[in-house]
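Sample intake sheet
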Amino acid sequence: MKVCHAIGLMSGSSLDGLDLALVRFTIGNGAYHYHIEEAETLPYPEPWRTRLADAFLAPPDTLERLDKEYGTYLGEQVRTFAGRHHVHPDFVASHGHTVFHKPLERFTLQIGDGQSLADACGHTVVNDFRSEDVSKGGQGAPLVPIGDRLLFGDYDICLNIGGIANLSYEREGRRIAYDICIANQALNHLARRQGLDYDRDGMLARSGQVDMTLLKRLNSHPYYGMLPPKSLGREFFEQYQKGLLQGLSDTDLLATFTEHVALQIALAASAIPQGKLLVTGGGARNKFLMERLQARTSHTVVIPDPMTIDYKEALVFAFLGLLRLEGKTNVLCSVTGAPTDSCSGKIWHPRPQSQ
């Protein structure tokens, strides 16, 4: 049996904060087992939230500087987290923060420079898990399905609802996975109009009324009729949805968009007639959304323990880093559409400190 410890980092498109998870992996007989020993979500200070939100529109020189500074910021958070919990991880694996995701143009960018991160935290770092697959012509997303297969195989479908909702499942020996729809990116955008970071439990959405005209417009986008592999980025929300969220009360908009998310998830999950549907990510805590999803699907919706809800993606990125260091496949071409699987990720070691 082999045991190692890793810290996984995840920053989602909803800008809720930085997730850090210290994970113990036990490897034996070809199987992987995990235990999340410590985990935290660090809300972004307002200056960082603004810089990350504005990165989408930043000029190249500003973006290059932000990449390095954000890498240093991540490393500082890792160092503080490790010191607080008195741990020395074998490595750190970071998703980074997605600024652009344009796989059809063979371009994706997750900022958080690996060398800056390694120098700031003092540990080996694995990052940039998407670009190799995208360079091959794949979507570079979703990345979590290898973790769903090897760590969460007891569930028929694994669903994560963050800024974007995505799911994965096995069919005829192949892992199928893709981004379903924009989720908390839009819901949090609407909640912030009311001075809130998010709509707790979906209470504002629950008080609104679904506008059928808007719902039909949201559901009519050609993306929903496309076969996987396919993936979404902030570009989709900015170009196709943000402008539609006008002309109604914010509560009605929240109710309508929540119904849109529930419907699209239910349609995606219908590829498996019935089974256990594991839900993680911030959307799993949205009680109204979970009610609407259960009303639209015949699956058994499973809400796991809080650690799994909040830190599954950070856990899986730690796992992707482990597979990269082992030289094993961590990105599945059946998911991304690339011609081959990949052992993806760049490895960085801290440079000696100058005297």
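Comment: The two ends are 40 Å apart (CA to CA). Residues 60-84 form the longest helix (25 residues).
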